[in-house]
Amino acid sequence: MDFSYDDEQNALRQAVSGLLGRAYDGEKRRAVVAADPGFDEKTWAGLAEMGLLGLPFAEERGGAGAGQVEVAIVAEEIGRVLAPEPYVQAVVLTGGLIDAVATDAQCDELVAGLAEGSLVPAFAHAEPGTRWSTAAAGVRAVEEGGTWRLTGVKEPVPNGARADVLVVSAIDEAAGGATRLFVVRADAEGLTRVGYRTHDGTRAAKVELAGTPAEPLGEGADDRTAAIERAQALARIAYAHESIGAMATALTTTTEYLRTRKQFGVTLNKFQALTFRAADMYVSLELARSTALWASLVAGAGGDVVTAADRARLQTSRAGRHIGKDAIQLHGGIGVTAEYTVGHYTSRLTAIDHVLGDGDWALDRLAATVGDHETVDPLGAPYT
Amino acid sequence: MRLQLSPEDEAFRQEMRTFFTTKVPQATRDAVAARRDVGREQYVETQRILNAAGLAVPHWPVEWGGRDWTPLQRHIWREEMQLACVPEPLAFNTSMIGPVIAAFGDDAQKQRFLPATANLDIWWCQGFSEPDAGSDLASLRTTAVREGDEYVVNGQKTWTTLGQYADWIFCLVRTDPTAEKKQRGISMLVFPMDTPGVTLRPIELIDGGFEVNEVFFEDVRVPAEYLIGEENRGWDYAKFLLGNERAGIARVGATKRLLADAKQLATEVRADGRPLSEDPRMAARIAELENELLALELTALRVVAHSTDGKPHPASSVLKLRGSELQQAATELIVDIAGPLSLASFAGEDSQVPEWARAATPEYLNYRKVTIYGGSNEVQRTIIAGTILGL
Predict the structure, then answer these.
(1) ipTM of the complex in this document
(2) CB < 8 Å to B264, chain A
(3) Domain around A135
């Protein structure tokens, strides 16, 4: 057991932090998120240049063959400065899904394109009227004369308007209602995308498919919910780290404010009611950090990554809400303004909390199996 | 970064598990598991078994019975002991006065006290808190005045845990009332509890039990050779001692045990025709507590893994704070599982209410102490805010 970063990992963190720190110091983030596509293409290219967009993929597929801990480092640095680049969505979730399911030929194009920064993929999965799920609900896939066509609406699709390629989940009635995955090109006929800004400064879209031609991702007519479950689990873990980065900044921003802001003739850190709340924020942060780190290590050890991700999801959800809300409260009115940073952290934490299942959702899943084990051994089965 | 224990540490864990579950008498472990009071004899017997195997004071210097283990091995030792329901070596001996004497005592004191302390031949109790010196310990007023080869001690201590079993007491006393800083005038004295002038008054707690006491000193004459270290340096030794007290204070293994019991009990209690464990609200409550405990354990492991350079990890202050809260949450959970049965708290052995349900509320009430002792949680928050967050 070893919970320390090695020299290479520390160097990676420094490099990422350098790149993103330059890109998003001061007011730059507000300018970037004000215009489409809601992130900075140059920074995205910079991430590609550093090999970060191919980090988790095998070298023969154009990736860097790194582990979940390295992905976690990047995600945490993204969260620290609230970089709006869709790293977890594009690389960990969509890229992970492609990498797991696609044929070699598809990977040659899609994974390699993602890694070199020339192709941004998005996963079109959520549908109005459904909650977090591994299955598609209303979008249908039908094969006619050798061509697959998709019909239905996906929304909200993160970065759905900017994406060069959409990976779309759809029900295949001919395969007994299995959820299958398809690649839809940006210029496909019958594809309508309406993008919009979301509260956290990122972008989502309504994606309408009207008999849109699509290419099955991978071979065979298998149900892909297991692959979706796993990719979502790895994305939940990466998001846990992104939120840790955001929580850490929200806390340091708050403590700096308490040290400098004066009321009643003294700085706010003279008020124990406030410093104790900051101490509790630190406790939440460190407990969540431990759980996120552990979940990444479970992924690396080949353990039960789905349960580990649920555990990290629950802990970071609770911590993110606690820290996000109290960061604003301890600032007072300025925390609610758009021109100050801290409220944007709360906004982003709230978005992360709802993208792949919130804390109660994760708790329901954990509660369903709580009787299956006497105790949890984080260093033993099923986690290692 | 690696999750798994090394083969050596895994073997160590198995060795500890096997020892604790086979060498410590089942009746003692059953008493701990049932959350019954463990008597003096069971404590002594257990500690002697551990000491004979070199497992009572592994954190002491090697020449006095220490084992030179890694912080991780010490963590595993403690966790496995708690999971196996083994009464831990008496903290007053092994975590408090023993390390102080080993670090600051003279040779005669080491020879005289350390082997007997490790083996629980001497049962120590703590004379730190006073009625007007709780969290603000340095305000203590018990005095020791030097007269020839003796100190004459007058004053009062309180919250002296298990003082009724104790042979000796280690005490903080004021030896220089004129010192500019109140911390500077404090010394550490040790003396037998049967010294003339020492009286003990038990304090009944809200669980009906007697585990803490007041101790009164009236012209107690203590030989000067029982001064530990230097005169007026007692505050340094107390800080050293309290630093040790916080080691292992997360009590993850013990809370795991409580939670595992709670899970089992929730399957035995029926509510509306089905096991209480199948109630979604109860299942969620257990699952959430289990996850919080996991987060605490992982934080303890992070702290352990990073403490090799001797400096405490900043997150270590989280351990006392959260560890105590989760102990309380687990005892509260068990009361709620017992439900109306919990009202039979003082029923006798002919009661039809199971023993665990009768014990539940007294234990829950007793456990209010854990967020108070060892540096109250408000003191911990002050430390986090000041030392870590710079507020």
Answers:
(1) 0.97
(2) 374
(3) 123-216
